[in-house]
Amino acid sequence: MGYLKNIGAIAKGMSITFKEMFEPTTVENYPDGKGPLRGAGFQERFRGLHVLQRDESGLEKCVACFLCAAACPSNCIYIEAAENTEEHRISGAERYAKVYNIDYNRCIFCGYCVEACPTDAITHGHGFELATFNATSLIYRKEQLLSNVAAHNGANAVFNNSDSEKQRSISGAVEYSQTASVETNKH
Ligand code: SF4
Ligand code: SF4
After folding, report:
1. Domain ranges of the chain
2. Residues contacting ligand 2 via CB (< 6 Å)
3. Measuring CA to CA, how many Å separate 178 from each of 18, 57, 63, 65, 100?
4. Does the CB atom of residue 72 touch ligand 1 within 6 A?
């Protein structure tokens, strides 16, 4: 009777195969699809390239407390802190991150840095096109990670851009930072 049991198991397996044959086919035409994701599909919760956030005034949320670097199991966050002054204000607190690098050769996208951050300055965005032939280009600088819009304006939904768009985004962030600094100094 053992062989009858085996035939039953095979029939059950094949029924699933046949059922799937009549399901509509889902194709993601990446990288030639439409939209900012170029046809790729992933969930909202996807942990991609990090985004350094700004507050409502345009100031950087990072206060250079080093907690993210301490929490990182891959030791891939490098920060240099500097003091804000009246003339040169970058963040809302005493200190700001003058240098903030993430080495994506080592990052495992675990999200511990995001969990550790007391000011919600670092979040995971949706950037996913990190592949490169040059390992040194996987060390992302603050200027590449910094959002050019405040977090409440949806800065977390930052997708990968083409190089020219990314460059525009970087110069936009620098301009935004300078404008925010001037605006803050006026007060
Ligand atoms: S996601 Fe994990 S590995 Fe990557 S920088 Fe954050 S803590 Fe480090
Ligand atoms: S990103 Fe957050 S945890 Fe990391 S140094 Fe800045 S404020 Fe601290």
Report:
1. 30-186
2. 62-68, 79, 97, 116-117, 119, 121-122
3. 61, 12, 17, 22, 18
4. yes
User: In terms of pLDDT, which residue wins out, 4 or 171?
Assistant: 4
What residues contact residue 39 under an 8 Å CB cut-off, 6+ apart? 28, 29, 30, 31, 32, 33
The helix or strand, by DSSP H or E, that contains position 186, with its residue range, turns out to be helix 163-186
Interval 72-106: pLDDT, tens = 999 999 999 999 999 999 999 999 999 999 999 99
The 10 Å Cβ neighbour count of residue 158 is: 22
Nearest-CA residue for ligand 1 atom 3 is 107
Q: Class for domain 30-186, per CATH? A: alpha beta
Rounded to 5 degrees, what are φ and ψ at 169? Answer: -65, -40
The predicted structure's pLDDT at residue 175:
45
The residue whose CA has the least distance to atom 1 of ligand 1 is: 109
- 110 C-alpha to center of ligand 1: Å? 5
Residue among 134, 133, 115 at smallest CA distance from 123: 115
- In the β-sheet with 95-103, what is the strand arrangement from edge to edge? 77-83, 95-103, 139-140
Residue in 122, 164, 165 with CA at minimum distance from that of residue 145: 122
Q: Which ligand is nearest to the CA of 103?
A: 1
- 89: CB partners within 8 A, 6+ apart: 59, 181, 184, 185
Instruction: Give the Å distance between the CA of 69 and the centre of ligand 2.
Output: 8
